[in-house]
Amino acid sequence: LIGEPKKIDCDIICMAVGLTPTTELFWQAGCKMQFVPQLCGYVPFRDKTMQTSSPDIWVAGDASGIEEASAAMVEGRIAGHSAAKALGHKIDDKKFDEYWTRLHHLRAGEVGEKILAGIDQVLVERWEA
CB-based contacts of 14: which residues, under 8 Å, 6+ apart? Predict the structure, then answer.
């Protein structure tokens, strides 16, 4: 039910605030990383589901590159739905299209062009099995 507390078993949730991606745990996990000036520092490579090169780790928000909070929230939804789907939960795949449409609207304009150019440097089509 909406508004009901939910218990989610997980090892860690990371939050970052600032103008440099907080990526230490991605480094420690062995994720493939790259310095991307347009995203303000080192960020992990990711696919369209926000999954990193480590099959059990997804990235979103400032850890994936510095931009505005509303984009971080939408990326978090993509990553959360993707992780849930990977765990076998039934997910409405139409939501992914909705979230990506929101991100495209948020990333419109001159600043968005810079961010998209940065993302293009670390976005992979899919991870090899």
Answer: 22, 25, 63
pLDDT of residue 32: 97
pLDDT tens-digit profile of 64-118? 999 988 999 999 999 999 999 999 999 999 999 999 999 999 999 888 999 999 9
Are the beta carbons of 65 and 45 closer than 8 angstroms?
A: no
Q: How far apart are CA 17 and CA 78, in angstroms?
A: 20
Tell me the one-letter amino acid at 108.
Answer: A
Vertex 68, ends 63 and 73: CA angle to 5°?
A: 65
- Taken in order 46, 91, 83, 1, the sign of the CA dihedral is positive
